Amino acid sequence: MVERERGRTGTIAIAAGRCPNRWTWRGFEVCYGRSGDRGPAVVLVHGFGASWRHWRKNLPFLGEWCRVFAIDLLGFGGSDKPDPAHPGYTFDTWGQQVTDFIDQVVGEPAFVIGNSIGCVVALQAAAIAPERVRAVALLNCSLRLLHDRRLASQPWPKRVGAPLLQRILKQKRIGHWFFRQLATPKTVRNILRQAYGDPAAVTDELVDILMEPAQDPGAADVFLAFTGYSQGPLPEDLLEVVTVPVAIWWGTADPWEPVELGRAFEQFPCVEKFVPLEGVGHCPQDENPFALNYQLRDWIYWKAQETLPHDPLHPGDRVEVRVVRPDGDYAWNGLRGTVVTVGDRAVTVQLEDQDSKRHFYREDLWPCDREPLP
């Protein structure tokens, strides 16, 4: 099955469905989505309880300029959910899964972009195999506030309650009952509305994306295994040893991962930029993709030291202005003109009915002889 999603210049065909592509890793089936066939390679890593489909608003856009892969971590989405005892739901497991995916499926070093716990996975992958990771982007990185080494700094209800709850949930019957109470559309919707700065972004589609894998055999055991995982690396442990460049975007309305704590990551030498996203919650790629997509694309091409690919324009071509960038000036939209000069990205246009020439980014121009935008 194929569905068509809108990109900047129309619709792009991407494989639809829960598991459009499969890869066998250590005997387990792993699902992934993909888009694009040119440009730098990019791997997207979802957060806890999510899947590759949480990147459905980013894959088509980034796929216009990059080869993009969104992977389901083992235990999540459409990937297998084996017994937690083997191979174990830890960041070391998932980091190795991502590096092997880059090696065996992507076929070249990739930019790795993570959200929430996917950020820790991305950093773990960069620590394991820096030769396979060109750079890492973190979107509201999980701070792992209930980690054993953080509990002492937490308010006493969390300091006492979190370990107690973990011990109780280790009793399988109780743990499965607890999971069933959480894995309902109403509860999932309420949790998402807490996490998102804009509650309107919590749609039925989003709830379904998280609910469907929760019905799989083994889903409860995965949930309980990870909620009881208070060891392993903290983000700062990995930032201390990672040698590839790191960029950070952080929704300032995130109630789970406070932006003021995230800003502390700027002190690490590998971190090159920290971009606050005002009013956005825990999942900026889903809540505010319009602005973030352009920023991620430009960052990827800047780090790759490549120019953005476009269909060719030549002096004399007639074009229409179609600005869609969040930082663009929409007042010019709908005007037509003739191309005067073409640079790597900037294009000079003689506007019709105006005695003036204006400069535009290449992606803001649409050839008049092409099929109109939908």
Q: SSE order in H/E notation? A: EEEEEHEHEHEHHHHHHEHEHHEEEEE
Q: How many domains in all? A: 2
CATH architecture of the largest domain: 3-Layer(aba) Sandwich
Q: What is the first-to-last residue Cα distance?
A: 22 Å
Q: Tell me the structural class.
A: alpha/beta
How many helices does DSSP assign? Answer: 12
Strand composition percent:
15-25%
What is the CATH level 1 assignment of the largest domain? Alpha Beta
Largest sheet: 8 strands, mixed
Salient structural properties:
alpha/beta; Rossmann fold; eight-stranded mixed sheet; 374 residues; 32% helix; five-stranded antiparallel sheet; disordered N terminus; SH3 type barrels; 15 strands
Structure write-up:
- This protein is of the alpha/beta class and 374 residues long.
- The protein has two domains: 2-304, Alpha/Beta hydrolase fold, catalytic domain (Rossmann fold); 318-367, SH3 type barrels.
- The chain has helices at 59-62, 91-106, 117-128, 156-169, 172-182, 185-195, 204-214, 219-227, 235-241, 259-262, 284-287, 289-304; strands spanning 2-7, 10-15, 21-25, 28-35, 41-45, 67-71, 110-116, 133-141, 246-251, 271-277, 318-321, 336-342, 346-351, 357-361, 365-367.
- The strands form three sheets. Strands 3-4-6-5-7-8-9-10 form an eight-stranded mixed sheet, with helices on both faces. The protein has a five-stranded antiparallel sheet with strand order 14-13-12-11-15, with no helix packed on it.
- Helix 2 crosses helix 3 (117-128).
- It is elongated, with a radius of gyration of 22 Å.
- Mean pLDDT is 88; it is low at 1-15.
